[in-house]
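Weekly puzzle thread! Below is a chain. First person to post its structure in token form gets bragging rights.
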Amino acid sequence: MKLIMVIVFLISSLHPVYVSFNTLELDEGENKLVLMSRVFYNDLTKAAENAYDMEIDTIGTDADINESDLAPLLRYYKDKVKISVNNKGIPPGDINLDRFEISNYA
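Winning reply:
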């Protein structure tokens, strides 16, 4: 019985791991913070699909990017990324996602 409980606990505690690399810099010329993130497209797509219970069509290359196609991904990113400066949170509405690239290495 204990073994079954341990197995059930281990299975229920498993969750996906999404990997990203982030850099936060101050652009003194424009007086703004610049956040650069590298996120695996497949991970971001799967996370957004799970969060919003929807299916997202995959996108090929930068030439295929349409902002409306990326809307759920950008929404998920803004919902999940939390930025604080001097212990003061930046509201998601103040975060502008003005450049993005998609690269496939499949």
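Puzzle host: Confirmed. Bonus trivia for everyone else. The first helix runs from residue 2 to 13.
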